[in-house]
Design goal:
The complex is a heterodimer of chains A (395) and B (453). By secondary structure, chain A is α/β, with parallel strands linked by helices. Chain A contains 15 helices and 13 strands. Classes of the chains: A alpha/beta (395), B alpha/beta (453).
Chain lengths: 395, 453
């Protein structure tokens, strides 16, 4: 099923990218890239993906700072950040250079704490220590520990927190509409907060809600469930949460599922997905969810490029698709050509004349009209339309 | 990094900078970007990143996402991953499966040279990449070089441009070359030769003034072009920021005279550019006479744009070539520039700023060097601006302050040469009339039915 680690063009960026994908969703946080300017400039795309100004400040270190030390510059940067932006959280992101020289900042940060008036986190974003999924997760756990000390359990029994997403994710606004709608209509739950999207940290009490780990955190629970794509995938996702939180599934939702099942069965019976080969480029929660619908419910043959979560899930629950781990750009396009893809969901890198392309994963460049989400029962119809169009084109 | 905020006169007189360790830059890119810009715009050079995956993923985005609109085809940017432990033990090697994948890419893209581009870990640990270089050369049968430029090598792209160009010329530096007529157009640009893009605009003007261009380096060039370009008479730059050790060495050792210290923007700026070229090829009068004839074609439209824009207040920003160039255009149009920003300073910037300031109705009260987003915010609040012209990301500031915005780093018709003044003037006019260049980023509006010159 899996190919050995032979790729030379990665899908995922470094830890720094993952940390920024998290912090960009905290409105009152400022992240400082403590390293060379390249590491900051290259990641300005992340706030841009989130529809924000490309604020990625940097200490802009060069070789001489590696020799003379960079603590003074970092101190000055923190003070200036506080004076200009008055953040509720400062995040220092180390790069390969500052990670390797391992300067100690603890004492300086301890002394600065009163002047800054907000917590300061130091995260290692170096690409030689981890990829962006690992960077995001590392930040999430440090953040979780940070707020735990001032947490108070929320009184509402129906409020939940979604965790593992980013404001920079492609189609996040539309996906959130579906996810919130599903939780409300199927389980009577209300999303009180999304980590990390439009989050205001502020200073004071932090209300804690039952967390639903998805996105980049989906594999951190005992019975992981990919994103809710297709009928079976949506039902599985809802049932998983119902079990986790001890909730009943509403009858209305069951009725809508039954109706949607009829549509999918009719689609498949009409042979509209027959012989369609689909390529998918996405992180595992999204990629596997979509793969399962296409392969298991529509009978398509699927090729998936994803992160390690896709590998682990299939090793445990059975193979769904030909899967490569962490392959992107031209190398992935070559794989998709060899596979004979008719329809490809992914980033702009995999847009090609050879197949029908559906924007699904960052980076998406140029202005692409944001479509409604492919998730949930509504999204099922959109996916089926694309599959039918790809089959038509193939003919 | 070199930071300055103050009046222009003091900067030009002293040329002294401070440091800003909280640089919220939005436009400058690093040395590796500079190097990859050179290599990835060549037809037969394949750069390979060593070390961190982040460098490979964000640099390929910056090149490929924007390059598609300017003639750069999608291409691979392979990387050889090393772990922290491998870095510490100096074990830089490629695995057999990765070598097989690389072989496939090589057979598809047919490069004649591979270049290993270092990351910070290589520089910091003084790692020896020779075994890896040898391994690749032997396995793939392609000459392989190592470029020891990494993100920490500089706070802007300059050293990357210079060293990458140096690496490409190095194998030919001992060649005995017979000179021939014609020049090279030098400095990184997207490879498109289309008339409305920068290379196309310059080639058209050079043809009109009777100067044969042998090669465009490096955009769209091959290694054979690099070798043959040594036979040309002049290296003509369209942006002085590429001037460095390599181009100076080519001038001293290979007789390739350097011209183009003034970038080809604006009526006067373009004439200065051509004048430098005329001096370098020994035909100062002939070129200027022919240039004058081309310039005359745009005179009427310049006057009408000037009548419209005279006295308007604008903020202008750009790199060492573009800022100088745009200020020349503002001088042509009699626009008042109360504040300006230079993205990063080059060794030619002091002289070029001094020269262009003399042409402006009055010098800017504030000049920013290495600007930050929060400083743009202050400028937008303090100055009563009629329009704002600069890097694409400055639109966020303009939007907040309701200032008409004219992007200059993304365009559908070149802002260079005589015609560029007209394109830019039309663009400003559109912005003043409410056209949103951000919502219509690649929609051509500045040069409808343009067939002049």
């Amino acid at each position: 099923m899996m190919t050995p680690l032979n790729r030379v063009e990665p899908l995922l960026g470094c830890g720094l990218a993952g940390i920024l994908k998290a912090t960009v969703g905290i409105e009152d946080a400022v992240a400082i890239v403590h390293g060379p300017m390249s590491c900051a400039s290259g990641h300005r795309i992340i706030p841009l993906f989130a529809g924000k100004e490309p604020l990625v400040p940097t200490t802009a270190l060069t070789e001489i700072d590696m020799i003379m030390g960079s603590e003074g510059k970092l101190r000055e940067a923190l003070l200036k950040a506080e004076a200009i932006y008055h953040p509720s959280l400062l995040v220092i992101i180390l790069t390969c250079a500052t990670s390797l020289i391992s300067e100690l900042y603890d004492l300086m940060l301890q002394n600065l704490q009163d002047q800054l008036g907000c917590p300061v986190l130091v995260m290692d974003g170096s690409g030689i220590t981890g990829d962006e999924v690992q960077g995001y997760r590392a930040f999430y756990h440090v953040f979780h520990d940070l707020v735990a000390s001032r947490s108070e359990r929320a009184s509402s029994a129906t409020d939940v927190e979604l965790a593992g997403l980013s404001a920079a994710d492609y189609g996040i606004q539309q996906d959130l509409i579906i996810l919130k709608g599903l939780l409300e209509t199927a389980l009577g739950l209300k999303v009180a907060r999304v980590l990390f999207h439009n989050l205001k940290l502020e200073r004071g009490t932090w209300l804690s809600y039952p967390a639903l780990p998805l996105g980049r955190l989906w594999f951190e629970i005992l019975s992981p469930c990919p994103a809710p794509f297709g009928i079976a995938g949506t039902v599985a996702w809802v049932e998983n949460i119902a079990t986790e939180l001890g909730r009943e599934i509403h009858a209305d939702f069951r009725a809508r599922v039954a109706q949607a099942e009829v549509e999918v069965a009719a689609f498949r019976a009409a042979g509209l997905s027959q012989g369609v080969r689909v390529g998918i480029e996405a992180e595992s929660w999204w990629g596997l969810g979509l793969t399962r619908f296409l392969a298991e419910e529509l009978g398509c043959t699927v090729f998936l490029s994803s992160d390690e979560g896709a590998q682990h899930f299939q090793a445990e629950y059975g193979e769904i698709a030909t899967t490569v781990v962490d392959v992107g750009n031209v190398e992935l396009v070559e794989h998709l050509r060899a596979f004979g893809a008719d329809l490809v969901f992914g980033s702009s890198y995999v847009k090609a004349k050879d197949w029908t392309w559906a924007p699904f994963w960052q980076p998406i460049w140029h202005i692409v009209e944001e479509h409604d989400s492919y998730m949930g029962l509504q999204g099922t119809r959109k996916i089926m339309k694309l599959v039918a169009r790809a089959r038509e084109r193939k003919k | 990094m070199q930071w300055y905020r103050g009046d222009v006169k003091t900067l030009i007189e002293n040329w002294q900078f401070s440091d800003n360790p909280f640089w919220a830059d939005y436009q400058v890119l690093g040395p590796s970007f500079g190097a990859l810009s050179v290599f990835m715009s060549m037809t037969d050079v394949l750069p390979i990143m060593i070390g961190s995956r982040g460098c490979a993923t964000h640099l390929r985005f910056t090149k490929i996402a924007w390059g598609g609109d300017f003639g750069l085809e999608p291409r691979p940017l392979p990387f050889i991953e090393v772990s922290q432990s491998q870095v510490i033990h100096g074990q830089y090697a490629i695995s057999t499966p990765q070598l097989t994948t690389l072989q496939k890419l090589v057979s598809r893209f047919q490069p004649h040279r591979l270049v290993l581009v270092s990351n910070d870990d290589v520089l910091l640990t003084c790692a020896d990449l020779t075994p890896l270089q040898t391994q690749l050369e032997k396995s793939l049968g392609i000459p392989t070089s190592v470029l020891e430029i990494a993100p920490i090598s500089g706070a802007n792209q300059w050293v990357g441009y210079d060293k990458a160009l140096g690496l490409l010329y190095e194998p030919f530096m001992d060649d005995v070359v017979e000179k021939k007529e014609g020049i090279n157009l030098v400095g990184w640009k997207w490879p498109s030769r289309e008339r409305h893009h920068d290379i196309g605009a310059c080639l058209t003007l050079l043809k009109a003034v009777g100067v044969p261009v042998n090669h465009v380096i490096p955009g769209g060039a091959s290694l054979a072009d690099i070798q043959d370009s040594l036979a040309s008479q002049v290296n003509l730059l369209w942006c002085p920021s590429y001037i460095g050790e390599t181009l100076e060495r080519l001038e001293w050792e290979k007789g390739l005279r350097l011209a183009g210290f003034t970038p080809p923007y604006g009526f006067e700026g373009t004439m200065d550019w051509l004048s430098e070229l005329g001096e370098a090829i020994g035909d100062p009068r002939g070129i200027l006479q022919r240039a004058e004839a081309v310039r005359c074609n745009y005179g009427v439209e310049l006057d009408s744009l000037k009548a419209l824009l005279q006295g308007k207040r604008a903020f202008i920003s750009g790199g060492p070539g573009r800022l100088i160039g745009l200020l020349h255009v503002m001088a042509d149009l009699d626009v008042d520039v109360p504040a300006a920003a230079l993205f990063w300073p080059h060794s030619t910037s002091q002289q070029n700023l001094s020269k262009v300031m003399q042409r402006l109705p009055k010098p800017p009260r504030t000049l920013l060097v290495s600007p930050s987003l929060y400083e743009l915010e202050e400028i937008a609040s303090e100055e009563r601006l009629d329009f704002w012209m600069g890097g694409y990301q400055e639109h966020h500031t303009c939007k907040r302050h309701g200032i008409p915005f004219v992007p200059t780093t993304v365009y559908t018709a070149s802002n260079q040469c005589f015609e560029g003044v007209i394109h830019l003037g039309r663009k400003i006019e559109k912005a003043l009339n409410g056209f949103d260049f951000v919502a219509n980023v690649f929609r051509s509006v500045e040069a409808p039915n343009d067939d002049s010159s």
